[in-house]
Design brief:
The protein is mainly α. The protein has one domain: Orthogonal Bundle (Lysozyme). Helix content is 54%, strand content 0%.
């Protein structure tokens, strides 16, 4: 998908200023989720998962699990350095991805691959259809299961939490079938291009301790 024309980008200047982003967002190339009716029980469960404001600080029951996390963190930080040059920003991002992936019961390698495909690890990425941030969350989700403020989707933890909770929801709907769940996440269910792209990107983040 080609980037938007500059005239379209110029139209976003006012919106960007109102969000306090300070600069134009970077266009993303991925698609977006499709809005679907949700049962009240499902909406309630997703809203509760989003609302939990626990900080993204990993906790470990034993030393070996902590060491495994630190090995993964070090290796992933080295791989991500070219895309995120600031050390503290990089560590905070990886710590949050680890926390939110584990919290949602997701394979962290797949989540990293999805983020690479969706936004190339750009915090303020926006797609043609309006999906936002690292995991390219469609604004309607903030109305359906959030507080209704789509600007919060540019917050790192908010974006990663929404993305992981939504992907978990799609996996549950597809009975654990990652191919179909990834397609649903992208709005292209049943087509191979997007799931295959995520699988390929995930190989970049493979690690024995992931």
């Amino acid at each position: 998908m080609k980037p938007q024309a500059w005239s379209r980008r110029d139209c976003l200047l006012g919106a960007v200023a109102s969000l306090g982003l300070g600069s134009l967002p970077t266009w993303a190339h991925a698609g977006g989720q499709l809005e679907e009716p949700l049962a009240d029980s499902v909406r309630g469960a997703l809203s509760a998962a989003i609302a939990n404001s626990a900080p993204p600080v990993p906790e470990f029951t034993d030393l070996e699990k902590r060491l495994a996390y630190l090995r993964w963190l070090g290796a992933s930080s080295t791989r991500l350095q070219r895309r995120k040059t600031d050390f503290q920003t990089r560590i905070e991002f990886l710590q949050t991805v680890w926390y939110e992936s584990r919290r949602a019961g997701l394979d962290i390698t797949m989540v990293m691959g999805l983020i690479q495909v969706e936004s190339a690890f750009r915090k303020f990425a926006i797609s043609r259809v309006g999906a936002r941030g690292y995991m390219q969350i469609m604004p309607f989700w903030s109305r359906v299961i959030g507080d209704g403020d789509p600007s919060r989707l540019f917050n790192m933890q908010t974006n990663l939490r929404f993305g992981c909770v939504i992907l978990r929801h799609y996996l549950d709907r597809e009975r654990g079938d990652t191919f179909l769940a990834l397609g649903r996440y992208n709005g292209s269910r049943g087509r191979a291009e997007y799931p295959n792209a995520v699988y390929a990107a995930a190989r970049n983040w493979a690690h024995p301790d992931a």
